[in-house]
Amino acid sequence: MEKRGFTFRNGFLYCEDVRVKDIQTDLSTNGIVPSSPCFVYSKEKIVSNISAYQTALKMLNISTLLNFSMKANHTPAILQIVRSMGCSVTLVSGMELKMALKLGFDPRLTVFNGNGKQDWERLLAIEEGCLINVDSPFDLMQTMRMCQKLRKNSNVLLRINPDIDPQVHPFISTGLANSKFGINTEDLEECVTLLEKCSQITLVGLHCHLGSTIHNVSVFRLCTMKLLSLKSELKTRGFNNIKYINIGGGLGINYKQLAERTSPARSSCTMSLEDGYTQTTVQGNNARQLNVTERVSQNDLDYNSGCSELMHDDLKVPTPGGLVECIQSALVDSEVTLILEPGRSLVGNTAILATTVLGTKGNQTKRFIVIDGAMTEVPRPSLYGAYHHIELSEPTDIVQVDKTTNRSSLNDPHRQVYDVVGPVCESTDFLGKERLLPEPHEGCGLAIFDVGAYCSSMSSNYNLRLRPCEVMVDGSTWHIIRRPDTFADLFEPYEGHWQ
Ligand code: PLP
Q1: What CA–CA distance (Å, rounded) separates 91 from 131?
Q2: Ligand 1 pocket, 345 CB below 6 A?
């Protein structure tokens, strides 16, 4: 069977059919500076994630639009795949709109979102005929003024704040009444009254985005019902052009799919050089008993197969099919076009950050693996304590010798509990805490998993670090899709202004 995405083979991490370590070596040999860290994407994974949504949406028998949320990843080569598969994009800034135009997206199918739009952004969105998501009465008034000034009409959606709890981390929850996003019940009447008076603006849709990393898909059903009921209400007030019901993005992915492989609970197992893990008792509330008898198969578990025997019960992975099934019976109005605008669930699991171990340090109570990747490339752990799976991407060279038998084996690496940290001068610069990992040699490859969403697009030059190289793997070939920053890129904005 063809292997997809990321797999371990003989202790080496592969992206599709390419060994991750080989990519790092080749980049270095070809003079790419820095060659590490580096984002590595699987093209096939991106394509299959998009296909999964498209297949699921076909079940609905109504017209649909799948809009990739560009904020999750704005690397052009990825957007090209999105466009080639017939998707549009949801945008949150004028520069994202410029990127969409540059890459040939039809602006009339893009949703231009934002709770605070600047004049130049609004002007561009109106000129290009984007679907404009209105977030507040002031946003609507500014849009009306701009339409008058440009003598242009505009199609808008109202972004509703439905006061629905998406049950996610508060920092990425947007659908509750206390959120800065969306129009609350009191402001809705003001917006409707303004729209009644404005001939240049047509209300064509209703929008709602509840938050991100949603696992309980029933909240999408609630949201669909609220928007449809509002649509009927507005029809009685004469708004007959509401065609789009946009329920946003937000579907979660299973970041902890392989968490058990590096869980410190496993350190209670006694390891024998002969048998690997011989003791099967594992501590921890939710952890199931491990019954790991073969070291090699343990290391080579297919990353995509879900390794169900190692998963926690509470980690049910939401799927596009599950989402569509859940909203299907609520979509009684066949006149509407449903818009979904996922970001994370289309690209989150399509990339790793390939990093290199700089060294290890610490004592018996606390040990660290220091790598060349950092919060500047993978900011989610430092922003809201998010979990990313971490593993060595090649076997460690450090040989463990058993003092009693005097035997050694590379297949039996010495595992310890480490915090994996980067070189950025901040205590929040950690990629993972308390991970049970083999002791790595200096220069060993180490991969941070599931970094396809909100990593490259949120990466920064903090500490004057260079944003890294990105490569796309397609079967057994790969190519660079973004060169790393250079010092010239960093200095250029100051050029002529510093002396
Ligand atoms: N739509 C809007 C309006 C958003 O703000 C976001 C992200 O916050 C998304 C869609 C995409 O969300 P996700 O990446 O969780 O699917």
Answers
A1: 10
A2: yes
Query: E strands within 208-335?
Result: 244-246, 271-272, 276-277
Alpha-carbon dihedral sign for residues 333, 159, 213, 340: positive
Q: Decide if 198 is catalytic.
A: no
Q: Ligand 1 center to residue 87 CA distance, Å?
A: 15
Task: In whole angstroms, give the CA distance from residue 275 to residue 153.
Answer: 72
Residue 246 CB–ligand 1 contact under 6 Å: no
- pLDDT per residue over 404-446, tens digit each? 766 666 566 789 999 999 999 999 999 999 999 999 999 999 9
Q: pTM of this prediction?
A: 0.90
113 Cβ below 6 A of ligand 1: yes
pLDDT (tens digit per residue) in 125-168: 999 999 999 999 999 999 999 999 999 999 999 999 998 999 99
Q: Provide the pairing of β-strand 38-42 with 18-19.
A: unpaired
Q: CB neighbours of 154 closer than 8 A, spacing ≥ 6?
A: 126, 129, 132, 143, 147, 200, 201, 202
Residue type at position 43: K
User: DSSP states of 124-178 as a string?
Assistant: HHHHHTPEEEE-SHHHHHHHHHHHHHHT--EEEEEEB-------S-GGGB-SSTT
- To the nearest 10°, report the CA torsion of 88, 306, 251, 78: -30
- The alpha-helical segments, DSSP class H, found in 251-354 are 295-299, 320-328, 344-347
Please write the tens of the pLDDT for every residue from 375-388.
999 999 999 999 99
Give the integer Cα–Cα distance in Å for 275 and 167: 43
Mutation to probe ligand 1, out of 67, 69, 115, 131 (largest number of atoms < 8 A from CB): 69
Give distance in angstroms: CA of 226 to centre of ligand 1.
Answer: 19
Q: Which two tokens stand for residue 409?
A: 């084996």
Distance 484 CA to ligand 1 centre (A): 27
Q: How much distance in Å is there from the Cα of 182 to the middle of ligand 1?
A: 13
Q: Which domains does the chain have, with CATH numbers?
A: 6-42+349-491 (2.40.37.10), 43-343 (3.20.20.10)
Under a CB-based contact definition with an 8 Å cutoff, are residues 70 and 96 in contact? Answer: yes
Tell me how crowded residue 429 is: count the other CB atoms within 10 A of its CB: 20
Question: For residue 112, which phi and psi values (nearest 5 degrees)?
Answer: -100, 110
Which of 130, 209, 214, 227 has most ligand 1 atoms within 8 Å of CB, for mutation?
Answer: 209
Distance 460 CA to ligand 1 centre (A): 20
Q: By C-alpha distance, which of 71, 208, 197 is closest to 140?
A: 197
Q: Is 413 in the pocket of ligand 1 (CB under 6 A)?
A: no
Structure tokens belonging to residue 482: 């973004």
Distance CA 223, CA 337 (A): 15
CA–CA separation, 134 and 138 (whole Å): 9
Catalytic residue among 425, 444, 455, 469: 425
Listed in order, strand segments (DSSP E) in 88-152 are 88-91, 111-112, 131-134
